[in-house]
User: Fold this.
Amino acid sequence: MPRPRKSPAKTEIRPVDRAFYERSPQRVARELLGKVLVRKTGRRLLTGRVVEVEAYLGEADPAAHSAAGRTERNAVLFGPPGYAYIYFIYGNHYCLNVSCEPEGHAGGVLFRALEPLSGIEEMAKARGVTIGGEKDLIKLTSGPGRLCEAFCITRARDNGRDLTSPGESLWIGDDGYEARSVVVTARIGITKAASHPLRYLLAGNRFVSGRKNILPI
DNA sequence: ATATCGATTATCT
DNA sequence: GATAATCGATATG
Assistant:
């Protein structure tokens, strides 16, 4: 049967299932591009499209938090796939990851930037900025610390949360968007294993974080 | 436009 | 006691 020519007013977002995350961080990272992060607070719905992520490979990756083995902080990375690992960094910011690989094997994907889709007023309020133009819109969720602030994500609130269920106040869904051209570069902000091509982004997307395009690989 | 720097604290050595 | 998967402000060309 023919699909309507115009997209419906409300786009259906289907949850991404756990099997999706039970794979290597590289594969999960690549395929997470274009998915939607959803935050449900009261009757407000905040959504943002994933436009930039990084893969962290577990105990074999010197840059990963799991490199030195399991601790209280990084336990989620060693648990089952599809759960939120949130850490606090530089005394100021939270960052969101989703656990990958089968249970017992560490690995995760860091969310580095989103393109705001809905709930922009709420995000601006959470970020403490006023939206005057395009530049202000970009400041909402362009960066791992920024997107957590916009979505009110904290370790106390969300660490260990199941990201596969729409019953949760934070989850990841698929609205049918397909990532077209993907660029892979070195990861940002790390000193160990800094040259590996493990950062994935949607080519040309305005909401990607950081300066220009750092050495595409 | 890019470069450098200070803030601020949980976590680990 | 040192470090850190960042951000925003300030300085400089």
